[in-house]
Amino acid sequence: MSSLERKFEKIALLLENLRNEASGDSLLIVEGRRDAKALRKIGVKGEIFTIKSCGENIVSFIDKIGENRKKEVILLMDFDRRGKEMTERLVKNLEKMKIKVNLTFWKELLSLVGNDLKDIEGLGSYIETLEKKVRGKIIFPYWML
What we know:
The model has no long low-confidence stretch (mean pLDDT about 85). This protein has helices at about 5-20, 35-40, 60-65, 80-95, 105-115, 125-135; strands spanning about 25-30, 45-50, 70-75, 100.
């Protein structure tokens, strides 16, 4: 198995786990509407909050999340400098409110695609391109299941 095939399989498994986790008691937080739309396109269900489109500052946004007590919050900010800074601020503030923060998906995606992809909204096309390189065509759009 080539390194590209291994990367594709790791990403596919990670996204399957994300879909399972997000459809439970977790709240998924992304930067903008396009990020949320991209995650919906690859089959992520459940509640998704978008920071940029909520029209509030970050403190109000965090208070709103605190009111919506979920088991945990999954952060999936972009992989650029701003996304990393926003992730740090959110983690700090959410943990102060005793809200469990899950960065597993973000960290794993960053390690797998960080040099190739800068935002969550491009994830679907990135996966399609990767699958075409690995298999020569898209055999199964697994996010459509």
